[in-house]
What we know:
Layout: E1 5-8, E2 14-18, H1 21-34, H2 38-48, H3 55-62, H4 67-75, H5 79-86, H6 90-98, H7 105-115, H8 119-122
Antiparallel strand pairs: 1-2
Helix pairs in contact: 5-6, 5-7
Amino acid sequence: MTKPQIILDEGGNPAFAVIRWREYERLMATGDEASLTDEELYDRAKAENEESFPIDVADRLLAGENAVKVYRDYRGLTQKQLAKAVGINPIYLSQIETGRRTGSARTLAALAAALSVDVDDLI
Length: 123
């Protein structure tokens, strides 16, 4: 996104912003959701048929806790079980969960598959 052009009023306060058309369209698309009720948003989410997670999972992720650990705990797996399912050493998994190692793209893809989440959810 590029920086918008700000047009000031007579008092020097921002009055208008000029943005790229693509950015405007993106904002308008997401703006539709802002006008929906909670019930309508819930119905839309249910229609997408994607898995939802409890608030404690979201809170842990937002707090910066390692996503692999959060999803592993949520799925009820031990490090040993997940490492075996992915075909890696439990020590390596522990290092990924503690942030000492990042994990290769292949390892992260395998972890995502074993945890039934998208790779993006782990990054």
